């Protein structure tokens, strides 16, 4: 794909995209210009590597329906601008689906099926085929020879850093494709779900929205508003995962959620290998 | 000043014009997932299902592993000899080169201004010790003696003569000390031990075979006579041809002469104490019998 490119933004001519995939009213916003007059509401806490610069995006508000930009926010490039790797996203998505899976499919083997201890008829002379038991797998009603056996677990753990990288890639791809919005707080004026739907439709965000806030206590209004809505969901930042991010079209983060996520995701870049589980206290690791 | 790369590079630029990444768009890197051969299905997996033609192979009745058709098998023809006899009971010492030690000190993972202990080495991820696998500690190896230039007070379990010479040439102190497996496990992972709430055990003395090693001044053993150690330092300096620096006039003299008691595992903590990490308290025994046991 990349080698046949002449310009940086040109798509190859033989790529077929269905026409109904793109919402024409949803104009792609260009990234904030460097000479924008809006104030930068948040700079990166962690040190940005010298050869990279922070990515910027607008901060909006949920208090009014019409889009009013409050300011800009600096996002750390090692979290929000990592090179995209769809295979890592695929691996993390498969892991999320399978590690909790316990298949309860169970069949009975010929020894477990009720009956079948006696030889049905004598070996020779009856004119019938020779058989030892009426529950052998070739019989109707007999046991299954190689069927699923009992609850099977599909548990496995991907390395911690692969899962962290998956989160970073998902966040970066949301930001790059203009599906990430940063909001100052989640305070909305009414607990009416219609208000949120109007806001989303007015701003042409998309069909489904995942709203992320740091901390356990979320404002009452937004909880009530999203309770009845199927496509708009609120989660705490600890619950952020690749599957939810890919399932919902749009990701909305608060400023505290951005800070929390940057803190948690950048820690893995500079930590030591664990001597004992990270849940136990360490004095020298931050 | 220097060229700033655009974070994410061209990949993120291209991504802006591609369709949204969704659950339906994910796929593994081509070539990573090879389709499994399903036995008993299709032209290639079916027919004899990879079992061959007739005989024990197809019928699943091959003889046991190592059988050679009646000829005396290899594993019986070769006579026994005790190469690996008792291998699981032999002490193992993880090597630590002076190259690696210098690397760790230069990177700031090990602090040379404090006594260097096995705990410090493990915390700085310099060595990996597995007490359960018959590791009895760390041995100092002389590789990198030419470039080693750090003044340290280091305590290991075994040390080669060249390594001792290199450290003492730079004005440091080497000591070799014995840790029995339980004390070693406590030393390597102190936090899980403290969280378990057990009192700090007293370090056992070495077994009969290792006592001569740890009482010898040439190995800088912790049970050796300090005067003999001083004489050995001078002799080693003469042997390797360097001037032995005078440590007693050093500013870090107090730190360099810190040594552990033969029954002590941690600096500053005695056997018998219980460390409570959550409440940041140390509990000391008051019973006479316990005190007698732990002080013996």
Radius of gyration of chain A: 28 Å
Quote the distance from N terminus to C terminus of chain B.
66 Å
Q: What is the element string of chain A, with H for helices and E for strands?
A: EEEHHEEHEHEHEHEH
Proportion of helical residues of chain A: 10-25%
Q: How far from one another are the termini of chain A? A: 42 Å
Q: What would the principal axes of the Cα set say about the shape of chain B?
A: extended
Number of strands of chain B: 7
Our estimate of the beta-strand percent of chain B is: 5-15%
Instruction: Please report the number of helical segments of chain A.
Output: 7
Helix and strand string of chain B, N-terminal first?
HHHHEHHEEEHEHHHHHEEH
**How would you write the strand order of the largest sheet of chain B?**
1-2-4
Number of beta-strand segments of chain A: 9
pLDDT averaged over residues of chain B:
93
Largest interface, with counts of residues having CB < 8 Å to the other chain, equals:
A-B, 46 and 36 residues
Instruction: Give the overall form of chain A.
Output: elongated
Number of helices of chain B: 13
The share of residues in extended strands of chain A comes to 5-15%
Strand neighbour order, sheet with most strands of chain A? 1-3-2-6-9-7-8
Report the average pLDDT across residues of chain A: 90
What oligomerization state is this entry in? heterodimer
Family (chain A): Belongs to the universal ribosomal protein uL4 family.
Protein name (chain A): Large ribosomal subunit protein uL4m
Organism (chain A): Oncorhynchus mykiss (Rainbow trout)
Keywords (chain A): Mitochondrion, Ribonucleoprotein, Ribosomal protein
Summarize the structure.
Chain A is of the alpha/beta class and about 290 residues long. Helix content of chain A is about 25%, strand content about 15%. In chain A, α2 packs across α3 and α4 packs across α5.
């Amino acid at each position: 794909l990349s080698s046949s490119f002449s310009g940086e933004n040109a798509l190859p001519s033989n790529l077929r995209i269905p026409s109904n995939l793109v919402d024409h009213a949803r104009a792609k916003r260009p990234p904030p210009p460097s000479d924008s007059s809006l104030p930068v509401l948040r700079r990166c806490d962690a040190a940005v590597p010298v050869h990279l610069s922070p990515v910027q995006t607008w901060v909006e508000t949920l208090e009014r329906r019409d889009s009013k930009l409050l300011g800009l926010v600096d996002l750390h490039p090692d979290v929000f601008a990592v090179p995209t790797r769809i295979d890592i996203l695929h691996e993390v998505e498969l892991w999320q689906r399978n590690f909790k899976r316990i298949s309860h499919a169970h069949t009975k083997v010929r020894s477990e099926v009720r009956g079948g201890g006696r030889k049905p008829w004598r070996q020779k002379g009856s004119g019938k085929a020779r058989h030892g038991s009426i529950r052998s797998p070739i019989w109707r009603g007999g046991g299954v020879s190689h069927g699923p056996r009992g609850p099977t677990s599909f548990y496995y753990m991907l390395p911690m850093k692969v899962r962290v990288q998956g989160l970073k890639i998902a966040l970066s791809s949301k930001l790059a494709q203009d599906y990430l919005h940063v909001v100052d707080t989640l305070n909305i004026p009414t607990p009416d779900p219609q208000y949120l739907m109007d806001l989303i439709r007015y701003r042409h965000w998309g069909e489904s929205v995942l709203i992320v806030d740091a901390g356990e206590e979320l404002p009452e209004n937004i909880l009530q508003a999203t309770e009845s809505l199927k496509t708009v969901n609120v989660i705490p930042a600890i619950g952020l995962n690749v599957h939810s991010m890919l399932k919902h079209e749009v990701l909305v983060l608060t400023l505290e959620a951005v800070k929390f996520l940057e803190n948690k995701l950048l820690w893995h870049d500079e930590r030591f290998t664990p001597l004992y589980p990270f849940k136990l206290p360490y004095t020298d690791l931050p | 000043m220097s060229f700033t790369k655009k974070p994410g590079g061209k990949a993120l630029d291209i991504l802006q014009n591609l369709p949204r990444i969704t659950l339906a768009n994910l796929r593994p890197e081509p070539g990573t997932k090879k389709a499994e051969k399903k036995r008993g299905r299709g032209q290639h997996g079916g027919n004899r299902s990879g079992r061959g033609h007739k005989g024990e192979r197809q019928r699943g009745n091959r003889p046991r592993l190592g059988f050679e058709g009646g000829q005396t098998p290899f594993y019986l023809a070769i006579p026994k000899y005790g190469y690996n006899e008792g291998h699981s009971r032999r002490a193992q010492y993880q090597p630590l080169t002076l190259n690696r030690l210098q690397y760790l000190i230069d990177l700031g993972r090990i602090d040379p201004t404090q006594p260097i202990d096995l705990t410090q080495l493990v915390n700085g991820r310099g060595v990996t010790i597995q007490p359960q696998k018959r590791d009895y500690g760390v041995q100092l190896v002389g590789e990198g003696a030419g470039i080693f230039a750090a003044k340290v007070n280091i305590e290991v379990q075994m040390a080669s003569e060249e390594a001792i010479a290199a450290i003492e040439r730079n004005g440091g102190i080497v000591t070799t000390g014995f840790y029995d497996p339980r004390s070693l496990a406590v030393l390597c992972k102190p936090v899980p031990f403290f969280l378990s709430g057990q009192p700090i055990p007293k370090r056992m003395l070495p077994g009969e075979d290792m006592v001569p090693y740890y009482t010898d001044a040439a190995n800088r053993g912790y049970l050796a006579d300090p005067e003999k150690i001083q004489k050995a330092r001078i002799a080693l300096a003469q042997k390797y041809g360097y001037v032995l620096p005078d440590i007693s006039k050093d500013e870090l003299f107090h730190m360099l002469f810190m040594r552990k008691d033969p029954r002590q595992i941690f600096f500053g903590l005695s056997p018998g104490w219980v460390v409570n990490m959550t409440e940041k308290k140390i509990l000391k025994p008051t019973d006479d019998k316990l005190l007698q046991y732990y002080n013996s």
